[in-house]
Structures are given as C-alpha cells and as structure tokens.
Amino acid sequence: MPADALALVVAFTVTVIATSMQATIGFGAAILAVPILEIVDPDLAPVPQMLIAFPMAAAMLWRERHHVDLRGTRWIIVGRFPGLALGVWLLAVFDDDGIAIVMAGLVLVAVVMAAGGLTVRRTGPTMFGAGFASGVMGVIGAIGGPPLGLAYRNESGPTVRATISAVFLVGIVMNVTGRVIAREIAVGDLQVAAFLLPAMALGVWSSRFLIGRVEGAPLRLTILVVSAGAAIGLILKVALG
Length: 241
Description:
By secondary structure, the protein is an all-alpha fold. Helices cover 78% and strands 0% of the residues. Helix 3 (47-63) packs antiparallel against helix 8 and helix 3 (47-63) runs parallel beside helix 9. The protein is globular and about 50 Å long.
C-alpha cells in the first residue's frame, strides 16, 4: 500500500463522508475528497477516487433507475463531447489557472442567478449546454458536477441523483479509458481504490438516512451551496498555488 496507516484511516473517513454527500444530492464526492486527500498524501488522489466513482454511480443509478431523465441524459452526454474537446484545447493554448478562475466565476454567477429565482426549462438545447459546460469544467477543474446540479436543481431528488449518475457513468468510462491508454494508472492506485471500496459502499448506504431530509427546498439549497463551494475551492486552489 503506497500510503501509511494514518493516511489510509483519514482517506477512509473522508471517502465515507464524500460518497454519502454525493449519494444524497447527486454530485460532490470528488469536490470534497480529492483536495483533502491530495494534501494528506498525493498517492491517495485523484485516480483512486475516479476508480471508485464508477461503482458508486452505478449503485446510485440502480437504486433510483426508474427516475432517470433519459431525454436529458442523451442531450447532456452529447454536449459533454464537444465540451471535453474544448476543455482540452483551452488547456493546451491558454494559462490553466486563468481558465479555471473564469470557469469557477461562471459557476458562481450561475449560483447567484439561481438563488435569485432564475429557472431554466429542461429543453434539448439547455441540457446540451449543461453537458457542454460540465465537459469543459470537468477537464479544466474537475468540477463537472455543478452545471448538472444547477440544471436539475428544481427537479425531485431521485431525478437529480439518477440522471447525474447516468451521465457520470459515461464520463468515468471515458476518463479511465484515457488514463489506461496513457498508462497513468499505477498498481498503487488500484490498491488504494480497493481499500476505499468499503468506505464508498458505507457512504452510499448511509445516504438512505439523509435523502428524505433534503428533498425539495433543502436539496435545492444544498446544490447551490456545494456548487458555490466547489467554485470557491477551485479559485482558492489556484490562488494558493
């Protein structure tokens, strides 16, 4: 195992909390876990979180599979491909930190507008736009969840969680495949991911006691708070180097 015992205990605890949050509101595990675990020990993130994200999203999707917005999912996935391509191009051409701050700023603007009562209708173009923004931000700052959460914030909890999980499954396969081709997944990553699998399962299981408490207005507020926190966290990460 690449990390020491204390670091693994911290990683296990953080993973339970982070996956419980995602299984409750639909996104946010990587937003919370990756920055903390990178500080604790660079060997703990981000690849292990990417690996356990697949079974986590699969479990969430299966749990609420009857609530998936299939039409919206298709449009979002279609939008993620050009968003991914644009994100890669932006990283190759422009300063990474500057782009990250701009994208984080756009998320904060969207949060403020949503908090002010702006409602976006779920149409093909708006879902394509959410997928596009998620693709760009996922590449640049690893915060692809907020655009999707904001797009679905007025829907029921099961629809939010199931639909975002369906989109994440496709994105995770793409990301892992890319890392496998680039040979950027080490044996240590697999060991850490295997160690964290029970923590992920515990987090998803524990969310069953929370999802009923955040339905409706609490869910909408939580999505706004997590989205804003992700954007602010990205800005601070850039500012602090």
